[in-house]
Amino acid sequence: MPAKPHPHHPLRIVHTSDVHLESDTFGSGARGAQLRDIVRSAFARVIDIANDRNADLLLIVGDLFDSARVSEEGLGFAMETIGRARMPVVMIPGNHDAHDERSIYAGLAPGATPDNLHLILEPEGRAIDFPQLAARVWGRAMVEHTPDYRPLGGVPEREEGLWNIALAHGFFMEDGETERSSPITPAEIEQSRYDYVALGHVHVLGDVSQGATRAFYCGTPAPLYSSENSGWVLWVNCVPGQPVSIERLMVRKSD
Questions:
Q1: CA nearest 87: which of 60, 113, 128, 55?
Q2: Of the candidates 120, 123, 135, which has an alpha carbon nearest to the alpha carbon of residue 240?
Q3: How far is CA 102 from CA 6, 67, 96, 201, 255, in A?
């Protein structure tokens, strides 16, 4: 297969997912408030990392919120924090904050989201062009977390001469595995021929690259949802003429 034509300048991305802000599973006492603050601090640190590294894009690949039961204050915190990012932010819903009849996103008032947030709410998917970055970003809104939902279903053909990025929240399945909800297959990743597929749903780092397409789970920025002591995000560096490189960045508890 011939080499894919690339833009003439690099693209720098911070990839995060599965933040799970405002979980009511922590309870209503002092310990619950402390855990919610830990998650908030981790998300705020993600924005700091993106700003400090002069990222061109920040991707939030589902489950920013733990459920649709989010207070106005909690929603305000999330939107204000995203608004601090000095770059475009592209976000899709995940299974915890799905865009269903209870969707937290459906009732957002005009002006409730910051200008830099590009929230993809179309179940059939939508591509967003960033001409200044020579990039196209595609994703789908999850409505229901079932085996019928295909996170990469309907992904458009790659646009030559652009960086082609996809967001997908679901479960990577090797061929022959038992069907899971929101499945993502090796063939779907490889046949996209995209430069990078940013994945969410799994709370630990996972490299599921296929062929020439790089595809990763980034893990969670808050350490509450994994066995590790620190959270993580991924730094994705797209350089013309080179394979896309991935760097794992720690989100420190103390920050």
A1: 55
A2: 135
A3: 41, 9, 11, 20, 34
Ranges of each domain in the chain: 11-251
Give per-residue pLDDT as tens, 119-144: 999 999 999 999 999 999 999 999 99
- Note the pLDDT tens digit of each residue in 195-229: 999 999 999 999 999 999 999 999 999 876 555 66
Cβ atoms of 64 and 54 within 8 Å: the answer is no
CATH superfamily of the domain spanning 11-251: Metallo-dependent phosphatases (3.60.21.10)
Q: Report how far residue 6's alpha carbon sits from residue 24's, in angstroms, rounded to the nearest whole number.
A: 45
Query: Mind giving me the DSSP string for the chain?
Result: -PPPP--SS-EEEEEE----BT-GGG-SSHHHHHHHHHHHHHHHHHHHHHHHTT-SEEEEES-SBSSS---HHHHHHHHHHHHT-SS-EEEE--STT-SSTT-TTTTPPTT-S-TTEEE---TT-EEEEEGGGTEEEEE---S--STT--TTTTPPPP-TTSEEEEEEESEE--TTPPP-SSEE-HHHHHHH--SEEEEES-SSEEE--BTTBEEEEE--SSGGGSSSSSEEEEEEEE-TTS--EEEEEEE-TT-
